[in-house]
Every structure is written in C-alpha cells, then in structure tokens.
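Subject: for your reference before the review

Hello V.,

The reviewers asked for a structural picture of the protein, and I figured it would be easier to keep everything in one thread rather than splitting it across files. Below is the amino acid sequence we used in the manuscript, unchanged from the supplementary table.
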Amino acid sequence: MRVVLAAALLLAAVASAWAQSPLVAQVRVWATRYHEEPTRIDKLRADLDEAIRADPHVDNLIALAQVCFIWGDIRARTSADKLSAYEQGREAARRAMELAPRNVLAHFWYATNTGRWGQTKGVVRSLFLLSTVKQEIATVFELDPRFPPGYSLAGNVYSEVPEMLGGNLDRAEQMFRNGLMLEPKFTGMRVGLAKTLIKKGRLAEARKELEAVLAERAPANLADWTLKDSVHAREILASMSGKP
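And here is what came back from the structure prediction:
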C-alpha cells in the first residue's frame, strides 16, 4: 500500500494541533523544511526516542511517530531500516492512542506508519494489517471529517489495494478530490490523484494534475514537494512520454 503514501502527509496542518514543547516545536519547523538539512531528522529521531523514555507525553509520542515516518521515507537506505523506522513510529502512535484515544493525529500516524510498513514488507505479506488501517481511517474521519491528510491516506489505500481486497479506484478518486477541495496545495495528494487517473485510463487528466504539482509555487509542505512530490511527478510524466 502506497500510503502517503506522500504521507503522506500535509504536515503543516498536522503540526498545527501540537503543543509547544521544545522538541515538538522543532518538529513543527523541520517537518516542512527537512529538505534544507535532511540530517536534522536523524537528530530529532534520536532526541525524541530519548525524550519519551523520561517523558512519554502524548505530544512527544506523536512527534516521534511523524519523525519516524519521515526518516523511513527520506533517510533509510535499506528495507530493514525502513521497516524499523515505521515500526518505531507505529508503536509510538499506538502509545499515544492509548493515552489520548480521541487524538486524530495519534490515529493518523498509527495508520500511516502501519500502511507504509505494509507497503515495504509487501502487500501479500501484510494483508493482516489492512483491516487495521481501514479502521483507523474511519476513526480519523469520525474525529475530524475536515482533516486533509486523512483523505490522502484513504485515497492511497483505495487506489493501491487490489479490488478483490477492497480497493476501489472510484472511491480513491473521490477521496483525493475531497481532500484537495480542503487543501488544494497538498501536492502529495495531487500525485495520488494522478496515479489513480492513470489506472483508470484518463491520461490527459493525469498529466494535468502532475503538471500542476510541478507548477505549484507555494506547496503546503515545501520539503515534501522538493524531495518527494515533484520528483514523483517528473518520473511519472517521463514514463508517460509518447502515450496518447
């Protein structure tokens, strides 16, 4: 499962719900600027891992879950490293959910790390996690139906999961479009929409979405746009070269 995938994520909106503890405040800044100094994510992961041993506060746990996701996407060099990061993030989010069952960020990062762990492990070998991810998506929407990252997460799940296992391209497209109505500059979500349109055979529409990603001058998350979304958009456009 490719879960947000461009996790996924509208991190600026996610960060806005956090309290201003020192490490959490740093994550708020670097979640949208990690492209400037990617090694900063290494230190934040290590510092947060140490911090939760002494102070397992909900905000620290959620911050660690987010940083682990970013680290797995950006800094990990092997599948084993990725799996370790996503599992650490998943566990941190699980603990946050136990402490704050109605915290939308805890549920979102639990689902996002779980989904990415499953994608890295392989769909067939991680089918047992699919029901968990879907349940967490439902919880996210129950807690906040206007939470844009939730739509990105849901769209990617419906797009990437085989139809026989609950995937649905029409539902995926609708999720992406609903999310983009809430946050038009969420470029990771626009890439997800383009990939779904390609699967549906609507190449001209997909190109338009990918070109919009590359033309975006004020993305919701500049770091994601720089290191992930614009890169993916160019790669997909190149693969479509010569196709009608």
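For the response letter, the relevant points are probably these. The chain is about 70% helix and 0% strand. The longest helix spans residues 79-99.

Happy to draft the paragraph if you're swamped.

O.
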